[in-house]
Amino acid sequence: MRQKLVARFGENVPRYTSYPTAPHFNASVDATVCRGWLQRLDEGDEISLYLHIPYCDKLCWFCACHTKQTRHYEPVTIYLRSLHAEIATVAGLVAGKGRVRAVHFGGGSPTMLKPEDMVALGTALRKSFGFLPGATISVEIEPNDIDDARLDALAEIGMTRASLGVQDFDPKVQKAINREQSFLQTKAVVDGVRSRGVESVNLDLLYGLPHQTRASVSSTVAQALTLEPDRIALFGYAHVPWFKKHQTMIDEAWLPGPAERFAQSQLAARAIVDQGYEAIGLDHFAKPGDALALAARAGTLHRNFQGYTDDCCETLIGLGPSSISQFRQGYAQNMLSTSEYRCTVDDGGLAAVRGIALSNDDRVRGWIIERLMCDFAFSAIDLVERFGEAGQRLLLQSSSMALHDPVRLLELDGDRFVVPAESRPFVRSIAARFDKYFEAGTARHSAAV
Questions:
Q1: Contact yes or no for 308/284 (Cβ under 8 A)
Q2: What secondary structure does DSSP assign to 189-204, as a single string?
Q3: 59-105 pLDDT per residue, tens
């Protein structure tokens, strides 16, 4: 049965970190619209901030992020001046109405910043926005960048969660993806952040990489577990060379096929759960006392552009080129070009150039998709109570899927539509059935499993 599902639903579908997904953003949402949304924040709103650092000192061939390689620091220095300008402009529009619950530094490689520049960013954020007590500060860490001075700087800005990219510890796999990083190097960084008071450590692992086998994945997971991370994210490698040209450096003949990818993912997941971690959504795992596990058990887990999160803020403000902001009214994305971004924000402008305003139908479908991705279930009563007639229309579609689909993608359990255990690895494909844009769209996506 599993192999039939792999064959049928190992298709290319969105990751559903938003709905509608980014390929359906358009120019109807621009800087003017984004400005209005920022100004309409309420006094009591809690907000999250995402800061994008679009540079790496070495380009990993598997990466699909918006980043560029630089061997010199001068472009980073110039970029940071513009990022500070954008922070000032956005903070002026927010005018103190939003209180920051969470900050996430992503990239690219945030940890390639010089220590004094990282501290200056943290200081600028706290001067520009009001922070709630206990606000979380998450940083994506590239272990090849890290030294004691940078670890001290991360501690100074109040980092509460460190996320380290591991991918795979096998040297053959690392060479194929241009990311060499030893286990001992990774352990040193984990020990370094913990010795500075960081209590939450996440490790990112990948399956489906070139030359990966079940044996190499199993070995990597076993080594990662010895570091006792609080969370593990287990992603399938997204091979999208039409989107990221540097992925053409990876010979497709080196890549495992759909059945092998699925076997790797299931083997890794079982090994992690066997060590006492709780499975969170599609591809995350957490210790039982971690905030992510607590949110999953409470039904308050969410999904945004950083993946699964316990962050319940309705507003996420993205800073930097390519960053996406989320508001009650919709999504807004900054321009991709770093040079165009700098010209815009240096003059006091906003960098938003595309996005989408949410219709009522979008909200209903987005709620269903998020609950499927987070809980593998949703309540028919909640659906209708939240969305009325629009929810009722989607209820009919859900009922048809549950009652008439021989593959049993959804089942009725009382008032709840539930994804059965054997279908959960394919939840992205199930979510796609509620995506009205998917069939009509021309965007290309990564493999579902």
A1: yes
A2: HHHHHHHTT--EEEEE
A3: 888 888 889 999 999 999 999 999 999 999 999 999 999 999 999 99
